[in-house]
């Protein structure tokens, strides 16, 4: 029986459990006599996290692992983060929190389904808001608009020498029969709660996050590849026979920040230029890019695993190594946080679930670590708030984070 527990547990951590296997894991995990096996499993994962040589060379001891297991079984998994403040500070605290976050589904199950414990009281209103989906609006050069999520598959438009096709999987593909001297621009925009994928006429691929837009030529003219982005987008740039730079003009529509220009050749990178974020960020996964701050005319070359943040005053701050997994989690179907402020977390929740968030006093200063599938209902995220003793109220589609919080990291 314990062998089966081990198999299912590792499938769960690797996110490969079926619904039936997950139900079986819940049952095995709750059986009396499996506590020791569960403790060993958690201890091993904690050890694996801490063995990363670039991060830490100190392991959690068995007592700490046992504390994590006990907290999971009691429905308060994140309490373990503060058990050893001298060890778990800075990113070390994040490592422990990430380990516990991998078990969050189990913790949520015990907190909400145990017959021996009362369920946390959560306001019923607004719980069942589904996560976002693939939806966007295409605006053609003549002003015609097409709702891409409801448009039929196949040829959507012919513009000059360019064609727009919606594939059977819902992707938008641009193709060019020939180069054109006439530049015809299209625009694709996603609402809050929407995302979309498109392939440009040169073969470059773009993933748009929620509340974002991209303006681009139907067919790129000779000698230039330039697009305009608001919000957040992930790019995989196609190499050309001739080294024609690919330019992304990113604008966060802030009166005191004129945006930035990213110049690339062949590379993979993410741009976050939301107007309600404190800075614009460019994160490089592969290749090389040069980022220009329009307001100060400063520039910086990025190498892989580096992130450049540009403040509203045009100041540049480099992060290396960047947390790549967290940056592109949205593109891979997750919402992920690693020791970021609760206010930053809730901005993502606002955009993806199309809700509004308000904070009382300094509640936004709490730091938070966690990971959630983007196709999960909003109620699953609210469970995470409950498990972390974060108090809130729901008023229609507005989540109000309360001020009576303990001053600790989550």
UniProtKB/TrEMBL annotation:
InterPro entries noted in UniProt: FecR (IPR006860), FecR_C (IPR032508), Ferrdict_sens_TM (IPR012373)
Domain FecR protein residue range list: 187-290
Domain of life: Bacteria
UniProt name for this protein: DUF4974 domain-containing protein
Domain Protein FecR C-terminal: 337-401
Database matches in Pfam families: FecR, FecR_C
Organism in which the protein naturally occurs: Chitinophaga qingshengii
């Amino acid at each position: 029986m314990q062998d089966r527990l081990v198999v299912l547990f590792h499938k769960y951590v690797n996110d490969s459990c079926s619904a039936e296997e997950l139900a079986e894991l819940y049952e095995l995990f709750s059986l009396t006599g499996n506590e020791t096996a569960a403790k060993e499993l958690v201890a091993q994962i904690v050890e694996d996290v801490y063995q990363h040589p670039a991060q830490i060379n100190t392991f959690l001891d068995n007592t700490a692992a046992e504390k994590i297991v006990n907290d999971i079984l009691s429905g308060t998994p994140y309490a373990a983060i503060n058990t050893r403040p001298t060890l778990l500070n800075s990113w070390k605290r994040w490592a422990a929190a990430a380990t516990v976050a991998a078990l969050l589904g189990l913790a949520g199950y015990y907190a909400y389904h145990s017959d021996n414990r009362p369920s946390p009281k959560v306001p019923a209103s607004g719980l069942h808001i589904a996560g976002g989906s693939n939806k966007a609006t295409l605006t053609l050069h003549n002003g015609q608009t097409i709702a891409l999520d409801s448009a039929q598959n196949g040829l959507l438009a012919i513009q000059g020498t360019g064609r727009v096709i919606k594939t059977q999987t819902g992707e938008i593909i641009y193709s060019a029969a020939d180069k054109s001297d006439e530049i015809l621009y299209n625009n694709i925009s996603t609402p809050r709660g929407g995302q979309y994928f498109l392939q440009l006429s040169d073969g470059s691929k773009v993933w748009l996050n929620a509340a974002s837009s991209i303006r681009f030529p139907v067919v790129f003219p000779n000698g230039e590849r330039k697009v305009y982005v608001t919000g957040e987008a992930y790019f995989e740039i196609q190499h050309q026979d001739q080294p024609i730079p690919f330019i992304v003009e990113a604008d966060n529509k802030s009166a005191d920040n004129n945006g930035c220009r990213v110049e690339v050749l062949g590379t993979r990178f993410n741009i976050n230029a939301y107007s309600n974020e404190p800075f614009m960020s460019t994160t490089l996964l592969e290749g090389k890019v040069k980022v220009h701050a329009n307001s100060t005319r400063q520039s910086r070359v990025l190498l892989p695993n580096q992130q450049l943040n540009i403040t509203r005053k045009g100041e540049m701050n480099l992060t290396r190594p960047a947390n790549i997994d967290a940056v592109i989690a949205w593109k891979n179907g997750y919402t992920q946080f690693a020791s970021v402020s609760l206010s930053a977390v809730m901005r993502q929740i606002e955009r993806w679930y199309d809700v509004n968030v308000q904070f009382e006093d300094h509640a936004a200063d709490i730091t938070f670590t966690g990971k959630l599938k983007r196709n999960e209902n909003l109620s699953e995220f609210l469970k995470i708030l409950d498990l972390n003793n974060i108090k809130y109220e729901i008023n229609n589609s507005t989540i109000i984070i309360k001020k009576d919080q303990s001053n600790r990291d989550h």
